[in-house]
Design brief:
CATH topology of the largest domain: Dihydrodipicolinate Reductase, domain 2
Number of domains: 2
Shape: globular
Strand order of the largest sheet: 3-2-1-4-5-6-17
Strand content: 25-35%
CATH architecture of the largest domain: 2-Layer Sandwich
Structural class: alpha/beta
Number of helices: 13
Distance between the termini: 52 Å
Number of strands: 18
Largest sheet: 7 strands, parallel
Helix content: 25-40%
Length: about 375
């Protein structure tokens, strides 16, 4: 049986480890022993380690066939670099801010297949984009995505399964999108729109920097990704941002230098943390227009009461696990850095990913209609 190590045992990392344990011998590594205890019932072995250490990572992954990187974004780039330097094939969901293609030459030199950004969006949205762009002359790509709690708790009406600093990054990083073939840059939280979703109602969408690799790899003249939240969220996030609560620049308070974002993350974490049994949902809509047709995918997923797994962990984690199974089966072998759109270009890989998720009740409903 092939051996997989999952670096990071947060809500998503632990979901990946549990899912992979059905087909692989899995080990989970994290500094948080409480998090590691939660994966043990699935037969997952554990290693307690500081994953910010290059030496620790390289020591841990030695002897494993495949690696999954599920560390926080600020650790992601270096972690992926260390994994590639060890010559290990890897699937990454760290969503780090650096350009992943900076590691492409190294990955090819080390004969490594690295699938990056392999979650929901970026992730399956890219797989879908890559699949259709390969088979038609696409004119536009639009993705709407959000993960939210069913229970709207004041004041934030939001819960996070990722690191709070990674979430805050969505509110401060300028949003880049493609319009008429040109890169447009606007502030995050700009251009709010109302979007209706069956079974949920109206949500607000805003510009976010979610295109990532698509802006480089897909020659589509119009592309945009927008984040979904409950109505009313945008204004108070703008207030916090403009006041400086999300700033990474140090300020001095009583002789001590601190970054406001670190204080904000510390305060927000208990407010945003999912409570035991708290139910959430993930909504995604992808539309690709071209050759007179609109190809649309809708995904609505809910907290799994049977396995007590959060929806965002399911939809992100199972996508990542599906990609790891692709690598293990030898169905995807392209060397270098591979964003998910490269995976989607191959019809067998596209169908494999869709079926893998469907088997776990994460269903992407496809429809096509004439463009107006």
């Amino acid at each position: 049986m092939k051996k997989v190590v999952v670096l990071g045992a947060g809500l998503v990392g632990s979901t990946i480890a549990a899912d992979l344990s059905k087909n692989f011998e899995v080990t989970s590594a994290d500094i948080n022993e409480d998090a590691l205890r939660k994966v043990k019932p699935h037969g997952v072995k554990t290693i307690t380690a500081d994953l910010s250490s290059e030496a620790a990572i390289k020591k841990i992954i030695n002897g494993f066939d495949f690696v999954v990187s599920a560390v926080p974004g600020f650790m992601g780039f270096n972690t992926l670099k260390y994994i590639i330097e060890c010559g290990k094939n890897v699937v990454d969901i760290a969503f780090f801010p650096e350009d992943c293609f900076e590691l492409d030459e190294l990955a090819k030199k080390m004969n490594v297949t690295a699938i990056v950004d392999c979650g929901v969006a970026p992730g399956m949205s890219n797989v879908i984009c890559g699949y259709h762009n390969k088979r038609m002359k696409a004119e536009s790509f639009k993705c709407l995505v959000g993960g939210l709690p069913f229970e709207r708790e004041w004041p934030y009406e939001y819960k996070a399964v990722f690191s709070p600093i990674d979430v805050i990054e969505e509110y401060v990083r300028p949003a880049r999108f493609i319009q008429n073939g040109k890169m447009i840059v606007k502030p995050a939280l700009s251009d709010p729109e109302h979007e209706f979703f069956e079974g949920i109602g109206t949500l607000d969408s805003w510009n976010s920097d979610g295109l990532r690799s698509l802006a480089k790899t897909m020659n589509i003249p119009n592309m945009i990704e927008k984040t979904l939240r409950y109505p009313g969220t945008i204004e108070f996030l703008k207030v916090l941002r403009e006041t400086g609560f999300f700033s990474s620049e140090e300020i001095e308070i009583k002789g001590v230098k601190i970054r406001p974002i670190d204080v904000t993350a510390k305060l927000l974490f208990p407010k945003w943390k999912m409570k035991e049994g708290q139910e959430d949902f993930t909504a995604l809509r992808v539309e690709i227009t071209g050759e007179g047709k609109i190809h649309r995918y809708d995904m609505f997923d809910k907290y799994d009461r049977l396995t007590k797994t959060n929806s965002m962990a399911r939809t992100t984690g199972y996508t990542c696990a599906g990609a790891l199974n692709l690598l293990a089966a030898g169905l995807f072998t392209r060397k270098g850095i591979n964003p998910p759109e490269y995976v989607g270009e191959d019809e067998e890989c596209f169908n494999y990913m869709m079926n893998y998720l469907k088997e776990r009740d994460v269903i992407y409903k496809y429809s096509v209609k004439d463009a107006e």
